[in-house]
Write a structure and sequence with these properties.
The chain is an alpha/beta fold and 884 residues long. Helices cover 35% and strands 19% of the residues. The protein contains 28 helices and 30 strands. A hairpin with a 5-residue loop joins strand 12 and strand 13 (272-278). The structure holds adenosine-5'-diphosphate and magnesium ion (MG). Residues 483-484, 584, 749 line the site of magnesium ion.
Length: 884
């Protein structure tokens, strides 16, 4: 390269000198070109250091002229020296290049992009997953939003890609039929979304089924825009705080961010790609993509990726199965990525749902709250919806949940306050006992004395039952305090007064348990005092003929006490002089059902109600939450109870299950030899093909087959048929089994007097209150009982949770501790345990909202919108997925 007689002194004035000579463009600079500048786009650029300055040379072609025209001054500096003649030549050549443009393809299914063949554009296309075709590039319509966003944050000096009007319209045009209210979305099919209508599906998805996207979405119960809007993500990945490989829990779905450390294809049978990824702490995990060897062209070693899958293991090493792999910044410009339930076979991926919800939210524009809510001073509804789906960060997401909790609590209060008003104005049933003195006789039939708390609670309830106004009360007491007994005594009081009584349990197993003890009580009473009280069980799954005669006996009043599940709420059951209803562990039953049952008497009188719970809630909260209900607290527990010793075994449950001489199993065997029984609880139910240490299936196999071969081991879980569950529980109760492996079905209330050992595997996966409930299944006698929590407790919050179980045996303390430490995880979710009628609100966490919600509900009930609001509230609680 010549130097054209360039004088070094020129660089004091100019940072770049440009000359065009023949077919070459020459550039002289004092410094080297900036590495990451737009100059990478100059084709065939060669650079050479001439001692005191640099000489760069590139072919004088249109494309290079184009790049230089846009990039020269910005990358090099303001002062470039070039002759006006060269400037003209450069401009003319540059004008031969068409400016980049994106428009809708003729069939309306794709974004078609024409752009100069330059690196900066090609890199963008590859990030967005666009692919070349004869006319330029093609982008799937569902990536349009990402494309627009990347144009908004375009950093290059080369021109932005112009987005045609028809494309810009797609994510902005109003949705036909949407009138500003969420309610109107119930009538708009999901096909109103452009990306659904475009029906772009990949080959695999089409191979599985030729149905349209709209049809496939309908199968996933996403038929309307309303369905979509309230299909909340299952969880979120905070890109700033991904999960660590060392924290993964087998069986759970996890997402990690890391760099690809190895990549290999294999040809065995179907072929595939194996990727190893290392996270920020240096741990490695492997993922296999069967039949997807082509992915290798998309990724290379060193790429930063987001990997999602179910945690498993392969040859003893961690592995993610059933996964997806994406480039970390695949153009999805979201700080927190929502993960939706996806259906891989139909090609409805979480990524697709993200695009759909983004199109929807953007096109909705503004969304009005239902008219009856006061909107001033509150976060705009559309913003809340945005944060629920596409959070900006963890904090804003939490406040959106809080906002929704408030509305949800208002709905609950609408029902409670309205029914309260209806109930208050109606007469109750005075139940002041009768000649048979059933309550006293019952007290004399128990093999033990009542605790002081039980006596006080019973006296208080007797007082309330006797009044002629309807009464609701809430019995709050820690597990094992003997709440059932109080319920039984109150029922007998009602029966003595000539009325019928109901006790409802939350599960089949528990209802049967209450039935059994109540039956036993009345039998003892019959033997001792020759009084007849008839108790019957009403649950689902009773044979038709049996049920028919049972319903007849209930209707004609021959049954005194009905113990049951959900089944008691059925409108087909006609009660006879129903006077008293007890609902044990109330959270599961809706306020709605409750009200219906209580208003079912033909004479319009309202039976008394007793709710029972072990959930510690402050008196003030309880009062408002349940509609000025009076909580009755029971503090003391039956005497002679030894505290349960709780030990946290910080070991991998999987290994414990394979260690025959582990102290836990030796202890279980020792207990069995004394005639005592043990529970082994796992968080997972049956987990089909997958090997999972803490599933019932796996644990049962290990224990019955090897570790505890000499003992009689059974198992029970919620997915078994109710009859099978019952048969197993009966066997355990009758001491035909020494060890019961169970899922959390036994959580609430089951009473096995001789159970002395509770082993909870993978305890970190359960909440503190659940753990406390489960632990309360042992120690129900005067024998020394023990609870083992087996868990490595990988996160800080799991550790403090387990520690609080070790430290405290009081449910109230544990709940307090739980609240204090919860919610620090990097993955956060609005998913609730399904035990509650609430989706967002949590009684313990949001108790401070309740008073305000009550005020708003009362205001609405006085407004002209009362009827619409009540209808919405009822609908909401009838099907929990229906929000407003
Ligand atoms: P909760 O429902 O409050 O958790 P339960 O009603 O299931 O407790 O009672 C737990 C156990 O304590 C049962 O076995 C019950 O028979 C027993 N029990 C209840 N009251 C007493 C008492 N006063 N003295 C001794 N044992 C009692
Ligand atoms: Mg109970």
């Amino acid at each position: 390269m010549g130097n054209f007689g360039i004088q070094e002194s020129l660089f004091e004035e100019f940072s770049c000198i440009l000359e065009i000579l023949d077919d070459e463009i020459y550039l002289f600079t004092k410094n080297e070109f900036p590495e990451k500048s737009d100059f990478r786009n100059v084709l065939g650029l060669t650079s050479e250091n001439n001692g005191s300055f640099w000489t760069h040379k590139a072919r004088f072609a249109s494309l290079n002229a184009f790049v230089l025209r846009y990039a020269l001054r910005s990358s090099i500096g303001r002062n470039v020296r070039l002759s006006s003649e060269d400037s003209e030549r450069l401009k003319k050549a540059a004008n031969n290049v068409t400016l980049p443009l994106a428009r809708l393809s003729d069939d309306g299914k794709f974004v078609e992009i024409l752009s100069p063949n330059l690196k900066v554009y090609k890199e963008l296309f590859s990030r967005l997953g666009a692919y070349p075709n004869q006319n330029g590039w093609r982008l799937r319509l569902d990536r349009l939003m990402d494309f627009e966003l990347s144009m908004d944050s375009w950093k290059s000096h080369l021109p932005k890609i112009e987005i045609s009007k028809d494309l810009l319209k797609l994510n902005r045009e109003p949705i036909p039929g949407f009138d500003g209210t969420v309610d109107s979305l119930r009538a708009i099919p999901i096909g109103a979304l452009n990306i659904v209508r475009a029906n772009v599906q990949n080959r695999n998805a089409l191979k599985n089924s030729k149905a349209t996207l709209e049809e496939k979405l309908a199968k996933l119960k996403l038929s309307t825009l309303h369905d979509l809007l309230f299909r909340l993500p299952r969880r979120y990945i905070d890109k700033s705080k991904p999960q660590l490989i060392s924290d993964l829990i087998e069986g759970e779905t996890a997402t990690i961010i890391g760099k690809i450390s190895a990549l290999s294809t294999f040809t065995a049978s179907v072929g595939g790609l194996r990727v190893s990824v290392v996270d920020s702490t240096g741990s490695e995990i492997t993922s296999t993509f069967w039949r997807q060897a082509w992915l290798q062209t998309k990724f290379s070693v060193g790429d930063e990726v987001i990997l999602t899958g179910a945690v498993g293991s392969w040859k003893g090493k961690p592995q993610l199965n059933g996964h997806s792999i994406e480039h970390f910044d695949e153009g999805i410009v979201l700080p927190v990525v929502p993960i939706y339930k996806q259906s891989e076979s139909s090609g409805i991926t979480s990524g697709f749902l993200i695009s759909a919800i983004r199109e929807l939210l953007q096109r909705l524009g503004d969304v009005k709250l239902p008219v009856y809510f006061k909107a001033e001073g509150r976060q705009p509804y559309i913003e809340i919806l945005h944060e629920l789906h596409l959070p900006s960060n963890l904090e804003t997401h939490k406040s959106a949940i809080l906002a929704m909790s408030y509305y949800e609590l208002v709905y609950l209060q609408l029902i409670i306050q309205d029914s309260k008003k209806n109930v208050e104005t109606r007469p109750g049933i005075p139940l002041s006992g009768g000649d048979r003195k059933l309550q006293t006789k019952a007290m004399e039939s128990f093999p033990f004395d009542l605790t002081n708390s039980q006596k006080k609670a019973t006296a208080k309830l007797n007082e309330l039952l006797a009044t002629s106004t309807p009464n609701s009360s809430l019995l709050v007491a820690d597990v094992g305090s003997g709440k059932t007994l109080v319920a039984q005594l109150a029922c007998l009081r009602a029966v003595d007064s000539g009325a019928q009584a109901i006790i409802v349990g939350p599960t089949d197993v528990l209802a049967r348990q209450i039935y059994a003890t109540t039956k036993q009580l009345v039998e003892t009473m019959k033997e001792k005092f020759n009084v007849n009280v008839r108790v019957e069980l009403l649950v689902g799954g009773i044979k038709a003929a049996e049920r028919k005669s049972l319903l007849k006996d209930i209707a004609d009043g021959s049954v005194d006490i009905i113990v049951g599940t959900q089944a008691v709420f059925s409108e087909t059951v006609k009660y006879n002089n129903l006077g008293f209803v007890v609902i044990d562990e109330q959270q599961k039953f809706g306020a709605e059902q409750r009200t219906k049952l209580l208003s079912s008497r033909e004479d319009g009188r309202i039976p008394d109600l007793l709710l029972q719970t072990a959930t510690p809630i402050p008196r003030s909260t309880a009062q408002v939450y349940y509609g000025d209900i009076d909580p009755i607290l029971m503090k003391d527990k039956p005497l002679g109870r030894l505290p349960i010793e709780t030990v946290w075994i910080s070991e991998d449950p999987k290994e414990v299950l394979q260690t025959p001489l582990h102290p836990i199993w030796l202890d279980v065997i020792e207990e069995a030899s004394k005639g005592n029984q043990s529970f082994v609880i796992t968080p997972m139910v049956v987990d089909s093909a997958k090997i999972d240490a803490s599933s019932v299936e796996r644990s049962y196999k290990e224990l019955s087959g090897h570790i505890l071969k000499e003992l009689r081991v059974g198992f029970v879980h919620g997915q078994m048929k109710v009859e099978e569950q019952r048969a197993t529980m009966e066997k355990f109760q009758n001491k035909e089994l020494d060890v019961l492996v169970a899922s959390t079905v036994i959580e609430v209330g089951v009473d096995i007097p001789d159970a002395t050992r509770m082993i909870i595997l993978s305890a970190e996966r359960m909440g503190a209150s659940s753990l406390h409930q489960i632990r309360g299944r042992v120690g129900r006698n005067s024998k020394k009982s023990k609870c083992y929590l087996v868990s490595i407790g990988s996160t800080d919050s799991a550790q403090s949770r387990l520690q609080s179980l070790v430290n405290f045996d009081n449910g109230f303390e544990i709940a307090k501790e739980d609240l204090r430490t919860r919610g620090e995880g990097t993955i956060f979710s609005s998913d609730q345990s399904g035990r509650s009628e609430m989706i967002f609100a949590n009684l313990a966490k949001h108790s401070n909202l309740i008073a305000e919600a009550k005020e708003e509900a009362l205001r609405i009930l006085k407004s002209p919108f009362k009827e619409i609001a009540l209808k919405d509230a009822q609908e909401k609680f009838e099907s929990p997925e229906r929000l407003f």
